[in-house]
């Protein structure tokens, strides 16, 4: 199966986890891992970028499923499907605040799992539209932008920004000290951020050319981060290096 949807399972009951993995594999999905703790979930998800995260709300250990999801959401917009046997309002409210794509209540049957994952996978295939952009997520001024972060608008000077990375319907703004995930596509950011130092170098990356450390044939480097450079953008990048 080409372009299989990649799924990470986070469940501390290994019998349940193995059962989910087997069912998903039989349905044609690629299970990239099974982890049992919140700390492992954060590391695995942010390193391997699954398409979907199936996450138990109540994990054993120091970090709950909701806390793991909150941490992952700070830098990556990975669709989350929660598994939960706890239906109290407090837990639901906390889980809802992480903006999951779906909930599956335990105990669940094969059809529950199949339909829920299929619906989320279909949403991924649809992808962002060209006009996707949240005007309340960021505001561009002459030498700075304001981005919504942890419920408030935070000022970022343009000179602080190293690069901006696409993350499906979101964009991840990278600075030396922190990352800021905004609910706006990279195309929309490119349209709004007209400062000549910020240029598109790849369908998934926009860089601050004043921060470049290395320019190679097919990639760039900023602060030890290797960023791919598409052939279609190469001439444009080299031309704008003279404007730094």
From TrEMBL:
One MF annotation (Gene Ontology) recorded for this entry: DNA binding
Family annotation (PROSITE patterns): HTH_LYTTR (PS50930), RESPONSE_REGULATORY (PS50110)
Domain HTH LytTR-type: 145-212
InterPro entries, per database record: Bact_response_regulator, CheY-like_superfamily, LytTR_DNA-bd_dom, Sig_transdc_resp-reg_receiver
Response regulatory domain: residues covered: 6-121
4-aspartylphosphate modified-residue sites: 56
SUPFAM superfamilies associated with the record: CheY-like
Pfam family, one: Response_reg
GO biological-process terms attached to the record: phosphorelay signal transduction system
Keywords: Phosphoprotein
Name of this protein: Response regulator
């Amino acid at each position: 199966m080409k372009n299989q949807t990649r799924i990470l399972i986070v469940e501390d009951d290994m019998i349940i986890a193995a059962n989910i993995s087997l069912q998903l594999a039989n349905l044609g999905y690629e299970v990239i891992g099974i982890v049992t703790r919140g700390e492992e979930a954060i590391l695995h998800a942010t390193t391997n970028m699954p398409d979907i995260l199936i996450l138990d709300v109540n994990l054993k250990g120091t970090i709950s499923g909701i806390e793991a999801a909150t941490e992952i959401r700070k830098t990556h917009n990975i669709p989350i499907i929660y598994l939960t046997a706890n239906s109290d309002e407090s837990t639901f409210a906390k889980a809802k605040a992480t903006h999951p794509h779906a909930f599956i209540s335990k105990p669940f049957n094969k059809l529950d799992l199949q339909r829920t994952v299929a619906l989320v996978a279909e949403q991924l295939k649809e992808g962002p539209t060209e006009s996707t952009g949240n005007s309340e997520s960021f505001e561009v001024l002459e030498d700075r932008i304001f981005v919504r972060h942890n419920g408030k608008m935070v000022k970022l000077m343009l000179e602080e920004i190293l690069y901006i990375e696409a993350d499906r319907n979101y964009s991840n703004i990278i600075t030396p000290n922190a990352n800021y995930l905004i609910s706006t596509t990279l195309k929309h950011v490119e349209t709004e951020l007209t400062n000549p130092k910020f240029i598109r170098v790849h369908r998934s990356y926009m860089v601050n050319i004043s921060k470049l450390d290395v320019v190679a044939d097919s990639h760039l480097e900023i602060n030890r981060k290797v960023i791919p450079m598409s052939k279609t953008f190469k001439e444009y990048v080299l031309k704008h290096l003279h404007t730094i």
